[in-house]
Amino acid sequence: MAKKLPKTDVVIVGVGWGGGIIASELTKKGLNVVGLEKGEERHTEDYYMVHDELRYAIRYELMQDLSKDTLTFRRNEKIRALPMRQYGSFLLGEGLGGAGVHWNGMTFRFLPYDFEIRSRTIEKYGKNKVPADMTIQDWGITYDELEPYYDQFEKMAGISGEENPLGGKRSDKYPTGPMKQSPQLKMFKKATENLKYHPYMIPSANLSENYTNPDGIARAACQYCAFCERFGCEYGAKADPVVTVIPVANKTGKFDLRTHSWVRRVLHKDGKATGVLYTDLTTGEEIEQPADVVVLTSYVFNNVKTLLNSKIGRPYDPATGTGVIGKNYAYQVVKGAASGYFKDKQFNNFAGAGALGMVIDDFNGDNFDHTDLDFIHGGYLSLTQTGKRPIANNPIPKGSPTWGKEFKEKSLNYINRTLSIGVQGASMPYKHHYLDLDPVYKDTFGDPLVRMTFDFEDQDRSLAKFTAQKCSEILKEMGADKIDAMEELGPYDITVYQSTHNTGGVIMGADPETSAVNNYSQMWDMDNLFVVGATAFPHNGGYNPTGTVGALAYRAAEGIMKYHKNGGMLA
């Protein structure tokens, strides 16, 4: 029998960016909020002097224990799905702050095209441009409607940037200026300008200068130490929930944070969520936390898993295309598309920051003509300087020996004579890409795991090949003596790291028949249940998702306050 606790106004499941923002906003307005986090509590002090590549980047200190909870994967329905037992394609964060602790800090806004992708594509190119099994749909919100929330997130996090010349209109400039331009970035800028493109510095959550945000949170500038992705920031210079929104919630006295709390079910009765059931991992005790409003703010796979195991919403059926929970899973076409090798130039590639880079959007969204191309959307092309740590990086030209004297000589020669241009490609959803519950494999508590069915499509292969060619052209303009470019995009490989940009499964829209939540992240089927995060994306754009996750979280917080006051479905 589970121990039943007193009711609270709001219970949040997962305290990362989404949960932290919502806790901060609701407690400031007087609501009592319980935050349940499966992992441990964290503080900036935990990362003092821990530039340990082996511990954090190779052995995944900050990540979820896959022996207790993971997912299963298959490329199509004809194959038996098997559990992901070691990290590869993406990394699942665990602990206070979630993936917001170990991210790089690249903070983009999706393009206006993204939010109205189906209607805009058909309007310009006709219905035949969209393949029959591609399930793109408009988001039920426009860029202009979401823009104020982007601005709110950027000012809270102190995003350092400059205006995207091909992006949506801004109501205000970034709160801090762009990061420093290294010699390599200046080369990229000159080359892309020579090619008539539109380069700009990547919007960065690594502060370019000391900054105090509207909540009074003061943080120091980035030191360019190059230990961002897979690491916590010892300076607090990288915006993460632990150093921005969670302290604000704590200060109100209205936030009850409970770590080591594994939520297993959303409890519900007569079409209303009544609370959650969780296990205290320190004692093994089952606990029921009643609440007026339940908010799922954990990672994509866990949001979907929790809903399906709680029997909330209509599970997606790929055979009929009906149902919504698990629908439109998307990833990202992310590759180091081309590498250039320089005989007579050396670069300090070991230095950098997580979001230090220069980017062009000339081949992103619908910023270029797709009439004669066999794909839609695109991606950004960028030269980043995140810091080449020694264990994980050993660039040598194709055809080089992989052992012996020549291998060692080339390894030493090229480590600081190689520059790579990467692509962050958009991922379109398909009828046969989805998430459901695995019928065989279970987590440590006996609950079914999430099963992912996904593979790259012709759309992805064409997009990747097209953008890789553009990357090669830029490297040639930069003066590379030898260029290795991706020639073909192979099948999706879950064992090789690509990005942690999983999206979809509880998607947003204007129609309850084709979406799970409205544009306040409120579930159509249960009006006091909100599901916040990248699960809401009907497709994945050509950008890192965090900026859009943050904007949607601020809008969801506004929606929860409206619901708390008036009840009912929000319009």
From TrEMBL:
- Cite the InterPro entries for this sequence: FAD/NAD-bd_sf, GMC_OxRtase_C
- Please give the Gene Ontology molecular function terms for this protein: oxidoreductase activity, acting on CH-OH group of donors
Residue stretches making up the Glucose-methanol-choline oxidoreductase C-terminal domain: 435-553
Keywords in alphabetical order: FAD, Flavoprotein, Oxidoreductase
The cross-references to Gene3D superfamilies, in alphabetical order and at most eight, read: FAD/NAD(P)-binding domain (3.50.50.60)
Region annotated Disordered sits at 161-180
What Pfam families does this protein map onto?
GMC_oxred_C
Family that this chain belongs to: Belongs to the GMC oxidoreductase family.
Q: What is this protein called?
A: GMC family oxidoreductase
Which species is this UniProt entry from?
Lentibacillus populi
